[in-house]
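Suppose you are handed a protein chain with no further information: no name, no annotation, nothing but its sequence. What can you learn? This example shows the usual starting point.
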Amino acid sequence: MSESTGKYIRLNRLIQKETNSSIIVAIDHALTSPVLLRGLVDLNRRVRECVEGGANVFMLSRGGAAMSCREFSRETSLALMMTASAAGRPSGSVITPIGSVEEALRLGADAVVVYVALCGENEPEMISYLSKVGEACEALGMPLIAEAEYPNAYQSLESLETKFGAKYLERNARLCAEMGADIVKVNWSGDYDSFKFIVEATKKPVVLAGGPLLPDEEFLNRMALAHQAGAIGCSVGRNAFEHPNPRAMVRALSNIFRKNYSGEQALAEMKAEMEAQQ
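A reasonable first move is to predict its three-dimensional structure. Written in structure tokens, the prediction is:
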């Protein structure tokens, strides 16, 4: 598949060439969460803190982008959300299209984002929509970030792993790549070996989803394992914008993916930064 000039330029902004890394903050949760998360109330402050911490990409809705774009640095990229969760069902969320690739171009976005929930009631429609977005992105030079995640992002990873498992993520991630995704966001599959296999089978840059809130040590160690397994970065929401110090947390993630810090090193430096600010 040939790559257009526009897609090449935009991908250069999404993935930092010097470190082959992408630190994404997903701050679109008002589109999907069953309740408004308190960390989203002061959106401008959260975006500013995450930019200062080293985030180079933000996943936002059109309204969120309009509210917070003045907090971007010159190097910050917008990844426009094109799906929302309409409802939570036993089999997972029903995903609703809410935007277009053309709108993303008008807004100055460097990527569009599609949440891909399989095994739900509308799986055929989900795959068809992803295919249409992939085709439009290829035609218009727009990178596609596909979120190959478990169907319900607000359950615990442990319960989702039990119900769906790594095989679900393997299938979802490879399907997203086959549909034209340039970057694939994947949940943690439970261990290093299974995640490494997903990265290898996807054959596209992979970023690890932050998932539900976790203790800092567990979260950063998981990120470091994902980096060792081949992930080029992360896409973190609640564990960044709900954190007591989003700036320090995003800096810890940046240190893992850009400076090859271990989870322990990143945690120690984050704690030192937080203590110095008290």
